[in-house]
Amino acid sequence: MQKFTRSKGAALCVFFMMLWMYASQAVASSGLQTAVVKGRVVDDAGTAVAGATVTVKNTTVATSTDASGTYTLTNVPLGAQTVTVSMIGYSSVEQSLTVTAGDNVLDFTIGSSADELEEVVVIGYGVAKKKQVTGSISSVTPEEFNRGVVSSPDQLLAGKVAGLTVNRSGGDPTSGSTIQLRGPSSLTASSSPLYVIDGVVGANIELVAPDDIVSMDVMKDASSTAIYGSRAANGVIFVTTKRGKAGAPVLSYSGYAATESVANRVNVLSGAEHKKFVEDHGLAVAASETGHDTDWQKAITRTGFSHNHNLSLTGGSEGTRYNASVNYFNNEGIVQRNGVERIIARAGVDQDAFDGRLKLAFNLANSINNSDHVDYNIFNGAARYLPTSPIFGEGSDYAQYGGYFQVPGRTNYMNPVAMLNQRDESRSNSTVLANFKADLRIVDGLVWTNVLSYQRSNYDRKYYMHRTDFDSNALGRGYGERTNLKHIDKILETYLNYSLTRNEHTFDAMAGYSYQNTKNDDGVWARSVGFMSDDLGSNNLNLGTLPEGYNPFVNTPYTLESLLISFYGRLGYSFADKYMLSASVRRDGSSKFGVNNRWATFPSVSAAWRLTQESFMQDQEIFSELKLRAGYGVSGNQNIAPYRQIVVFGPQNGQFLYNGQWINAYGVNQNPNPDLKWESTSMFNVGVDFELFKGRLGGSVEYYDKETNDLLYEYDVPSPPYQHNRLLANGATMKNRGVEVVLNARVYSNANFSYNTTVNFARNINEVGSLSSNIENIGVSQRYEGGVGLEGWTGQTASIVLPGQPIGTFYVAKYIGYDETAQRTIYQKPSGELVTQDQISAPDDYQIMGHALPKFTYAWNNTLRYKNWDLNIFLRGMYGNQIFNATRADLSRLQQANVTNISKDAVKEGIYETPLIASSRFIEDGSFLRLDNATLGYRFNVSNAKHFKQARIYVTGQNLFVLTDYTGVDPEVSLGGLAPGLDNRNYYPRTRSFIMGVNLTF
């Protein structure tokens, strides 16, 4: 793996400067006449509040409360002082006192966090109190984040937000997650949500270390997301990071070390079991493939070790505040030669000027991610390769393969250990984001905000297959690839926010302009063959010897540039915090679309009614908060590559001879479509937020109806008249509707013990509408997806996209049973006729046999505290989904056990006929309940410690168990794309982790 050199040094230099500032301020304050102020902070129920920030106003003196709620402020100047206490989810409180020599005692009672509607959440181009929000927004704080080894911040939200599915199939540390909000809503474009990081729209989520996040707010309905127009159809996730605060410098460290192991394996025969099976069934195995007992899955895996370290510094004065952090993350995969190493450095400065009328903020973040990847075919190889075969061959015949045992002439049959060690793939991705923000308060209530951001990523991929690799492209000559790309994103946002309160009437308005220029894939992709040595790999492709006519630049990417210009605005009105109304509109113009459809408008309107503010609710004692919400909005999806609307020329398959030279053939690779436009999603949302019994029970219930029109879809078209046989066009439709429920309860609370629990539930129904395009006579009635590709399954698929059915509909032969006498499997045609598999014609005789999307998802979070101990247990799951287990089908070839391994489940099933068609025999229930993580922590009492403000240690178990009837490695397979729920052999085993960590504040 590549190591960090200059980047590490630069990050450390920045951080040591911040440490110097920390030390300087500490020394400067030591010469004053000071005293000590101590006390305890509790909520309105008398429960200790841990982690609250206690600050002496207009000084740099600050600390935090410990697990018992106590605090100690040292170096407090003598005389009249004001002490403030703040905590996320609580109302800030301040008290004044006259500090005298010695110890001074000052206790606080702060407003209970039970009133969740008092919390502040981020909305488009601003913030609002939760009680004033009219749309559907879910906020998740660090206390609620998923614990454990987390390679990307989006994994913090898995199971935490009703309706948001964060799916990471397998345990590959280099892979990302598939994210869907309220069901799939596209056939071609990306389904990923829009990230807004500290106000920067579209910022790379990998620029943020999990330990630097203060909150993540998820906008779920179109009335909330419409303000972001053409990019917000899949939802918006706001990420707020730590900022500097006035007060003494606060130095924090958090870190953990973890071990990871394979949670579950493919249940194939061992060497001894395989030997017995082939002998019992009279099968003959080649002599060279016998005599050994090789555990191929064990041979390619290991116990992975991971560690994470985050060091941050915040502080400053009332006028100047700063923050800096460095995060280092190293995650070894449980597969050998696989892992990721990442460093993230962030620094920010906030400056007030002109008596606070001007607020300036500058942020700089740099993420460097180096990763080593493996060929996923090794997993299929580890399952199928005969366990009686050796890893290394005996004799000179195997020298050409690097000494590894191989079987020439057998299709798709390669030694997985050889494949692992003879293919090198490393990737490096460096991303830097600089953004500047200026808020000018022109007059009271009117603020002009300007945001400038520049994001640049450099991507470098190296891939090399050794000269001894069994693959025909590399054997005897080697094969190398190198990809180097640059991506640049420049954004200007300028907007005005105005608010006015008169008696019980509150008005607010916002208007703005946005300019975004994006340039992607600016670089080159090259390949070469004919290497004399493997020593340099793909570092010098020029050392290859190319055969005549070999093009080293085939499929070289071209630069993709796009421009998005927007005008937007919002109006809001509130009467007595009782009736609230909000409306927004955005007008977007994008260069990605046809000349006839460059501009589109995205409106929204929403309203809320707080019934508990009404006079007729004042005498009841059940509801402490009850709010009804309703909204409707339209948002868009432009997540496609630029230039899809114009004709594109490119190299064709072949060359022609001209003037004695071979010339590359060029032709049309893409048809133009001047009517191409963005997908448009309209959504109606109605919800109720409530708190009962003085906040002991709270939550929300939502219903939504979401329809996506003008779906982008690639159609087959006749050539001629079209110059190319495919055309990207709009026209298809899709619907999603569902219910989401969130319940949270303070089950019990006293001075020593508390128990809080949260449950969320989400039910979504997806339905494909029309597949016809908006171009006359172009459309399809159905489309087959999910190519399986097993040996002998040529051209077969497992899924269908069909109007009236959801995405992920399994369309296969209906399996009836097994005739043991004839040793034939029996199927039923749609007509009802019973036939054998050789009489099934795919897909004409296929039927709908299941669905991959779940009927509902759920999660249950439990937090218990006893004195200084805390325990968190988080479970999540899904119900009612099916999985097509192609892995099981591939390992059910009992008749071929002499040339490939088989599963123990197949032996137990005893069906002695090789499966050659996709059928319901391999569709299984994918429902599961997973103990995602459990964390036990202990917070030390540091009230008398000289250097510590907080100290906590914890242990975490991640993916401790899963309850499921699914027979595969793991039921949580990918739910993205047009063929979700397909377990097709190329899996990365899910891991089980055990973590020990520490959180320290100085």
UniProtKB/TrEMBL annotation:
Keywords: Cell outer membrane, Membrane, Signal, TonB box, Transmembrane, Transmembrane beta strand, Transport. Its main location: membrane. This is Iron complex outermembrane recepter protein. The keyword Iron-sulfur does not apply. NCBIfam families: OMP_RagA_SusC (TIGR04056), SusC_RagA_signa (TIGR04057). Coiled coil: none annotated. The keyword Transport applies. It comes from the Bacteria. Residues 375-960 form the TonB-dependent receptor-like beta-barrel domain. InterPro entries: Beta-barrel_TonB (IPR000531), Beta-barrel_TonB_sf (IPR036942), CarboxyPept-like_regulatory (IPR008969), Plug_dom (IPR012910), Plug_dom_sf (IPR037066), TonB-dep_OMP_SusC/RagA (IPR023996), TonB-dep_OMP_SusC/RagA_CS (IPR023997), TonB-dep_rcpt-like (IPR039426). Residues 1-28 form the signal peptide. It comes from Sphingobacterium wenxiniae. Residues 130-236 form the TonB-dependent receptor plug domain. Belongs to the TonB-dependent receptor family. GO terms for cellular component: cell outer membrane. It is a multi-pass membrane protein. It is found in: Cell outer membrane.
